[in-house]
Amino acid sequence: MLRGVSAQTIDEILARSFLANPAEASINAYLIDFNGRRILVDVGAGDLFGLGNGGRLLEALAAAGAAPETITDILITHVHSDHSGGLTKAGKIVFPRATVYAGGADIRFFSDVANAAKSGIDKRFWTQTEQTLTPYVTAGRVKPIDTDGEVVPGIRAELQPGHTPGTAFYTLTSKGQSIVFVGDVIHAGAVQFPRPDVTITFDVR
Q1: What confidence score (pLDDT) does residue 205 get?
Q2: Peptide bond preceding 153 in cis form (omega within 30 of 0)
Q3: Residue 136 in contact with residue 84, Cβ under 8 Å?
Q4: C-alpha neighbours within 13 Å on the C-beta side of residue 121
Q5: What does each C-alpha distance from 99 to 38, 75, 89, 93, 128 come to in angstroms?
Q6: pLDDT digits over 108-157, tens only?
Q7: Which pTM was predicted?
Q8: Helix spans in the chain (H)
């Protein structure tokens, strides 16, 4: 999956961190209670990857006392299924009150299946977008981000195309401090920190 480096070199670099192929990936989402809103940054894979492969967001929210209907805003870093798959379950909207924000370029790119052949990326990303994002679009609950700026009070979006056409970073600022939420800037830290020239096959540029 990594590009610009040989398999042998990958194995050598992984070994320095006491890792070996295949290395396990992580899927993360973030819950923010802020300014009277309950916000998610990304929603994981939902049930798209099968049992035992992610899909534990609702369980984690329940443990935190955050029912799906209390979520007001969802900030998607990019539309790939491991970041947006949790928007639906069995084709139904999971977060009925939430407004979903995502890069406009991502929404347009992954809504047109003709882009699958043009990009050389697996067509399943388009099929999964149809399953997960389209119900919110139909319900009028998606707001495309086409310029940098505040998306909800106290949180600013900054478009950073590269991994996908509409990748967005989100910066929360409060009491003179900030935290930035990003998705898939790197995929294999043990390899890409020492070799930042290494990219992954899912990057569009």
Answers
A1: 66
A2: no
A3: no
A4: 23
A5: 11, 9, 17, 12, 19
A6: 998 888 888 777 777 888 888 888 999 999 999 999 999 999 999 999 99
A7: 0.92
A8: 7-16, 57-63, 81-84, 104-111, 114-119, 124-132, 134-138, 189-192
What is the sign, positive or negative, of the torsion defined by CA atoms of 178, 184, 185, 187?
A: positive
Go through the chain and tell me how many residues it has.
Answer: 205
Q: Are 69 and 97 in contact (CB under 8 A)?
A: yes
Extended beta strands in 27-160, E state: 30-34, 37-41, 73-75, 88-89, 92-93, 99-103, 142-145, 149-152, 155-159
pLDDT digits (tens, 9 = 90+) for 52-78: 777 899 999 999 999 999 999 999 999
